[in-house]
Amino acid sequence: MKIVSLENGPFMVNSYLIINEDTRSSFIIDPGSDVVSLLDHVRNENLALEAILATHAHIDHVAGVNTVKARYDVPLCVNVLEQEIISSVSVQARMFGVADPGKVIIDKTLPGEGDFTVVGITISILHTPGHSPGSLSFYFDGVVFCGDSLFNFSIGRTDLPGGNYGQLISAIETRLFTLPDETRVLSGHGPETTIGQEKRMNPFF
Q: With a threshold of 0.85, does the pTM exceed it?
């Protein structure tokens, strides 16, 4: 597995291209508004792009969905609990003063727990609400992509609609901090960290 990361858009979101090097197929996690260079990587490396996964539906994490779909006919996969938030993308755009990406459609709903396979990679879904009701973390191959739940020495904000501080703390403690200490944490914003480092040094715990 190969991971290509791109910090992009006005919110400096981390978008990720996950590549199965054996099958030459790939998927994108959390496409920001300036995700084109990841799509160019797909084209230049002659990869198949099979899906878009979103950890949650805040505008910075789905602003590039329609850009991806315009070039590749792939489904957007999001937790069903994010439907109300994704329906408000235009409202979010006005609230934050950023470009409206247009209506974003969920093509496949993901459950809060369980495993699913994409591009030959089996992913464990972890429901990590608190930043938003349907926030998911994706765990596979010793890496967890946790969106805006857990950051390097910080946690996600809980003051947006649907946020809940107690839920977020509980989700991190029961679903993320139970992963092996050496697990790489690739967040929606900021630098990489590990589960062990956050358990030891994150000031919120």
A: yes
